[in-house]
Amino acid sequence: MLKIAETKDLTAIVEAAVIKHGAHADAFVPILLEINHEFGYIPGDAIRMARKFLHELYGKNPEEHILVSEGQLYGLASFYHMLHTEKTGRHVVQFCESAPCHVQGGRELWKSMQQSLGLAAGETSPDDRFTLKTVSCLGVCGVGPVVLVDDDLYGNVTPEQLADIFAKYE
Amino acid sequence: MKFKRSMVLVSNDPESLRKGAADVFRAFQLELANFDLTEEISLTQFTDGGREDALPLVIVYPEACAYGPVTVADVKRIVEEHLYKGRQVDDLLAPVKELSGRIGWLKTRKGTLPSEKRVVLRRAGRIDPENIDDYIADEGYQALAKALSLTRMQVIEELEEAGLQGRGGAGFPTGRKWRFVGATKSPKKYVVCNADESEPGTFKDRVILEGDPHSILEAMAIAGFAVGANEGYIYVRGEYQLAQYRLEKAIHQAREMGLLGENIFESGFNFDIHVHSGAGAYVCGEETALLESIEGKRGEPRARPPYPTTHGLWGKPTVVNNVETLANVPAIILNGAEWYRGLGTPSSPGTKTYTILGNVNFKGLIEVPMGITLREVINIYGQGIVPGQSFKMAQTGGSSGSIIPASLQDTPMDFESFRKAGVSLGSGALLICDERTCIVDLAITLMKFFKFESCGKCTPCRVGTDRALRILTAISQGQAHLDDLDTLLKLADEMELASNCGLGQTAAVPIRDTLKYFRAEVEAHIRLGVCPTGVCDMASELEMA
């Protein structure tokens, strides 16, 4: 998804996100989520632009109270797990490491996953193909252990299935 | 797996054993084989028979029929008459002197097992969640209409009378919370639905939101009317995309029909709802962190008091309720407090949803009356532990729940009984572990979760979870000392006493439970350098070899 993202117009996307959600404090996280969704992470420039647009929009509606610093927006981006401040690989592999998955075979799966990708948690492969992350419970524990690749969810995963799953993502 | 039509439980507490329960158990094995029933009927043992005069006690499910005292000579009759021919053996039934203890409790519950009792999940999967007509055809928005015809105080009193307790884990009386907010004088108040369900192993709220979104909107409008609020937020965890989509759609439909917005049912009452997406932070399930998050800040819990009931969202009085709690509200308003009190136990009325997970034959979500025991959940709804294994422990309520050893599996699961036993019901996740699970390995998994999700605001939690994880990891590698266990307990005390919010406080629970119930297994790692279940990679063992 990043191939397209690199050619996307950062300014236009950030401006659209700010206009869509408005210049309210409760719109900060939704705006950042939207930027993250478009680029796979939140580029530093996007934070500067988001602040600028937020203040411009606020100028048009002075009755709404908003004053935000770049640091505050960065603070949000670094706090929430679904927002990334670093560039990720073309595909993000997320492994649920919570207890329900763990006792249902997750322990063995996590070992073979790190081996087959040659990555530890938080690392991105040199060819930018995969980023491996761990994630807290995804709420689909009935079919654990669970692996999420981009937006595709795989349940009841065994080590033997990993090669076939990863082969689908170039 | 073959489905068993009946389950026979034989008591095996010390008193029963003294009275020959072991022989009774063997006689059942023999007779079931004689009648060729072994395939259809499961036979297990249980402790806590309740009254001494009825021991050894034999319970037959699904009828919840209690025989006792049972001798070896009675076994053939029970098997032949009851299990083979289907006729209850009346003269062998345990005498019912009073409705107390296990027998009395079974009597009052007779007929309610093993079928579920669905209140909050009654529509999920039965109606089209994206079509408001389906909801309206099934009593939808009638409770709101009824509430609007009452006074605000009448609505609150009905809830108080029903005894509804918060289903997010703490069990705080919902009616009292509403009363607090209703009593404030602020012209602006909020109703917030906590749908940031992130407790590992819990997905009840997702099923309610995805399967019956209108019930939450209706409940929030009722809450808004009762406390005097006209704006609501639903904070849905970021990963629940489908739930967000369906809620947005439901809100749109309700507005079109005038069930949300201005002058609802021509009563002059206005109420509207926003859906707010989370962005991945477990700690935002803590109500003050959730409010911070809506306000566009890092989800770090506030110091309390003041509580949200007086200083909540944007500093205004706010009701914060869990999804499952709210889903009970329309049913209570419509059917009355008395009906609700008829479900569950006297101290914990109503139903509870549980997710059954782990090493059982059937995994999934159930809704049952409060007061069912863990053994019943495992054997009836979970259809037993996976073949060839036996029950070791259960972990309730996600990571911040308790570890329940086998000795507590007959404790009724309601807020009060669990509190007395020193364990917690939590959010209703039941992670069932068999004998292959290593307690140290499980504790590491739980502690990793807390460390990962700690927001870092307060030191006891930020540093405590990290230190605890290091020690537990050292234990799993055979590199710890016995002194480290004292350090662990000290850490647990400090985290519990000094942490700012529930995350740090409950991070202490797995440490305590581990050392309370499974100390021998932990010590084996340290003293002998051996993991009894063979799960942990004992580094020292490998190095020495």
Any overview of this molecule?
- The complex is a heterodimer of chains A (170) and B (545).
- With 170 residues, chain A is an alpha+beta fold.
- Chain A folds into two domains: 2-79, no CATH class; 91-167, Glutaredoxin.
- In chain A, 48% of the residues lie in helices and 11% in strands.
- Chain A has helices at 2-7, 10-21, 28-39, 44-60, 70-79, 99-117, 162-167; strands at residues 91-96, 130-135, 147-149, 152-154.
- Chain A has a four-stranded mixed sheet with strand order 2-1-3-4, with helices on one face.
- In chain A, helix 2 (10-21) packs antiparallel against helix 3.
- The longest helix of chain A is centred in the middle third of the chain and has 19 residues, at 99-117.
- The termini of chain A are close together.
- Chain B starts with 5 loop residues before the first strand and ends with a helix.
- Chain B has four domains: 6-109, 3-Layer(aba) Sandwich (Glutaredoxin), CATH 3.40.30; 132-338, Rossmann fold, CATH 3.40.50; 351-434, Ubiquitin-like (UB roll), CATH 3.10.20; 439-544, NADH-ubiquinone oxidoreductase 51kDa subunit, iron-sulphur binding domain (de novo design (two linked rop proteins), Up-down Bundle).
- Chain B has helices spanning 14-18, 21-34, 72-84, 101-109, 132-137, 142-149, 152-162, 174-183, 204-211, 213-227, 241-256, 287-294, 323-335, 337-341, 374-381, 415-420, 439-453, 459-476, 483-498, 502-506, 508-517, 519-528, 539-544; strands spanning 6-11, 41-46, 58-61, 65-67, 190-195, 231-236, 261-264, 269-277, 318-322, 351-358, 364-369, 391-396, 403-405, 429-434.
- By secondary structure, chain B is an alpha/beta fold.
- In chain B, a hairpin with a 6-residue loop joins strand 12 and strand 13.
- The chains are: A alpha+beta (170), B alpha/beta (545).
- Chain A binds chain B through residues 24-30, 32-33, 68, 72, 75-76, 79-83, 97-100, 102-104, 107, 134-142, 144, and chain B through 197-203, 206, 237-240, 274, 276-282, 293-299, 355, 357-359, 363-365, 395, 398-399, 429, 431, 433, 437, 441-442, 445-446, 448-449, 452-453, 455, 535.
